[in-house]
Design goal:
heterodimer; A: mainly alpha; ABC transporter involved in vitamin B12 uptake, BtuC; two-stranded antiparallel ribbon; 11 helices; B: ABC transporter involved in vitamin B12 uptake, BtuC; 16 helices
């Protein structure tokens, strides 16, 4: 029995470790999507932030400075997205894809130019990282708590404040918001910046908290899983949080399931478990399990009439 | 913001795209400068690396073949008003079809039958992988962008599973299938040209490029000279008008996406039948996404796509050569350039429009 509890606790801790960047990213993406800006570029923002954090921490020795630079990097990407989609009314999906590809290339190119290690940043010593706060082996660094706090914060900001109300309105019907004399552009920029902030934290978590260096393509699709979690949570903070936990649990279980035979089913392929978040999201979007309805104006650039 | 007056056609077709690409390359130049390399020196090395010898030209054309296929794939969907980001996965599953066909039949069929069959299998599997998101959009209303993204990851997981557990050659340490028999190999260009007395240096360039050219012509004929293509473009321009005119939106969505997926399958033909001669992992890496850049740069027209594919092929090959002379300049630079081209030619396509408008207004 004791063994069971140890295993349960270990799995829970592992779930939270894996889910932390997903939660942060999903909360960031929620702001953007609820304001009507599709964010396919979460992956790229997180990657740029991870690189900035590890590089800064390696060069200056301060993980806090690394955290700041991670946010700066993600915000730069977010502003590029905003400039293209809000100011110039460009295609939001195209812009997001551009940001992903740009981040994948730039982080490696700059990493090679700076450290000549094939895109890897130098290994960080413990004092260059964000370390666990209370439990040594649980990996409960400050960003894990930030992720847990980000959910009620997002729920409050979107659900209970005047800013949140306007944000939701601008994602559903920007014309009405504009007619009420509120700037659609400024509202959407704020949403995109909030998204960058959270994506920055998520990226920093990957490179200076969970791991001890940046590696090429280290986000490995987690930005897209976060996007899937947003959709799976039907664009609402708490359900999206739940989706992140489920996807995190799947990932944690996938590692333990390798080579294990499930009674009655046999060995479950790890790849199937890894593909499950994507498959579940597709099923949900198709309306086979509930219905996910996106903000009405998502993806549509707003053109002010004169 | 100035009202959007239409620009003259020549400005729309030539000037704007060129300004967009120039902006992308200027940005690249600045970044190259920042890491302490002379951008003009790098550019010179890149051009020589891409076009300096018949071998390097062969490589450039070989890469261009892949870009042409994925560029066309994205463009056909674009014309129908659909955004297919799933080229990556469709090319991958196309490879599965191609590989399965050859592995099953290459010992029984002669080459002239095996090769077309393998190409058809690549196209069919690519089309099938695109058909599911298309069906989900047309009948269930799920967003095709999201579904195709998710399907890229599902395809990757599926391929890893199949390669590691099912299709791996017995005794092989790396996840790859057994080699194709001679009947399952598409002849290399230097062999073909050598046989008719034109000696060229050996390169991975193979007959797939002929298929890519045919695909360009085929797409052009289909889109602009057949009723089906007309319907497809009508739906892309104005779905409401298309419905009013009696177009079956669901059917056209399926048609556009299947064509798109089949074209993406061309990457598998070039890579597997033409070069690797076995089923391998990750042969599709990055081509599906680069196809978006190619289509945007080529303004979704086959001629533009062919030119853009050549440019991207040259970048890919020149970028590889660059690393020999300047160790800091790896092939990853090509990825940066791709990203910037998508940003400037795609998302920021309207950025220079007011500039061109005001210059034209002043000239008049």
């Amino acid at each position: 029995m004791e063994e069971f509890f140890t295993l349960l606790l270990a799995t829970l801790a592992a779930t939270l470790r894996v889910a932390t960047p997903l939660i942060l990213c999903a909360m960031g993406g929620l702001f953007s999507e609820r304001s009507g800006i599709i964010d396919v570029g979460l992956e790229g923002k997180m990657l740029a932030a991870a690189f900035a954090a590890a590089t800064t921490s390696a060069l200056t020795g301060s993980p806090w400075l690394g955290l700041v630079m991670a946010i700066v990097a993600a915000e730069t990407m977010a502003l590029a997205h905003g400039f293209a989609c809000i100011t110039h009314r460009g295609n939001q999906v195209v812009s997001g894809v551009a940001i992903n590809i740009l981040a994948a290339g730039l982080t490696v190119v700059l990493g090679i130019a700076m450290f000549a290690r094939g895109g890897q940043t130098p290994d960080l010593s413990p004092d260059q990282r964000l370390l666990p706060l209370f439990f040594k082996n649980a990996g409960d660094n400050i960003l894990v708590y930030a992720a847990l706090l980000s959910v009620p914060f997002t729920a409050w900001l979107i659900g209970k404040t005047r800013f949140g109300l306007r944000l939701r309105a601008v994602g559903e019907m920007p014309l009405a918001v504009d007619a009420a004399g509120i700037s659609v552009t400024w509202l959407r920029y704020r949403a995109v910046l909030l998204c960058g902030l959270f994506a920055g934290l998520a990226g920093a978590y990957l490179s200076i908290a969970q791991n001890a260096s940046f590696g090429r393509d280290m986000t490995a699709g987690q930005g897209f899983i976060a996007l899937a979690a947003i959709i799976f949570g039907k664009w609402r903070p708490w359900p999206a949080f739940g989706a992140c936990l489920i996807f995190g649990l799947l990932d944690a279980v996938a590692i333990r399931m390798q080579g294990v035979k499930v009674p009655g089913i046999g060995e479950v392929p790890v790849q199937l478990i890894q593909a499950l978040p994507y498959l579940l999201t597709v099923f949900l979007l198709a309306g086979f399990i509930g219905r996910a309805i996106a903000p009405k104006a998502v993806g549509v650039p707003y053109e002010k009439e004169h | 913001m100035a009202a959007r007056r239409p620009l003259p056609a020549w400005a729309e077709i030539a000037v704007l795209p060129l300004i967009n690409i120039a902006l992308a390359f200027i940005t690249v130049g600045i970044i190259v400068r920042l890491i302490g390399v002379d951008p003009f020196h790098a550019l010179k090395l890149l051009v020589v690396g891409a076009l300096g010898s018949s071998e390097s030209i062969g490589y450039t054309l070989y890469y261009a073949t892949n870009f042409a296929f994925t560029g066309l794939a994205v463009a056909v969907a674009f014309h129908a008003g659909l955004f297919n980001i799933g080229g990556e996965g469709q090319a991958y599953i196309g490879g599965l079809g191609c590989g399965l066909a050859v592995l099953a039949l290459d010992r029984f069929l002669p080459g002239w039958l095996m090769i077309p069959l393998a190409i058809l299998a690549a196209a069919a599997f690519g089309a099938a992988w695109a058909a599911v998101p298309a069906w989900l959009q047309a009948w269930r209303g799920s967003h095709i962008v999201i579904t195709t993204i998710m399907f890229n990851f599902v395809a990757a997981a599926l391929m890893v599973y199949l390669m590691v557990n099912v299709l791996i050659a017995p005794g092989s340490m790396t996840p790859q299938s057994r080699g194709f028999a001679a009947t399952g190999k598409l002849p290399a260009m230097h062999e073909v040209l050598g046989a008719i007395g034109i000696p060229v240096a050996a390169s991975p360039l193979n007959l797939s490029i002929v298929l890519a050219v045919l695909a360009c012509v085929g797409v052009w004929v289909f889109l602009w000279h057949t009723p089906g293509g007309y319907t497809l473009r009508t739906m892309g321009q104005n779905p409401d008008a298309a419905i009013y005119a009696g177009v079956n939106i669901r059917k056209v969505t399926m048609l556009a996406m299947c064509l798109s997926g089949a074209l993406a399958g061309g990457v598998a033909v070039n890579e597997l039948l033409g070069v690797h001669h076995r089923l391998v992992l990750d042969f599709n890496a990055g081509y599906g996404f680069a196809g978006i850049a190619v289509a945007l740069m080529g303004r979704s027209h086959p001629v533009g796509i062919a030119l853009a594919a050549l440019l991207f092929g040259a970048l890919q090959q020149g970028g590889a050569e660059l690393a020999f002379d300047i160790p800091a300049m790896t092939r990853d630079w090509v990825v940066v350039i791709q990203g910037l081209i998508i940003l400037f030619s795609g998302a920021l396509a309207n950025l220079p429009r007011p500039w061109v408008q005001s210059i034209l207004a002043r000239v008049r």
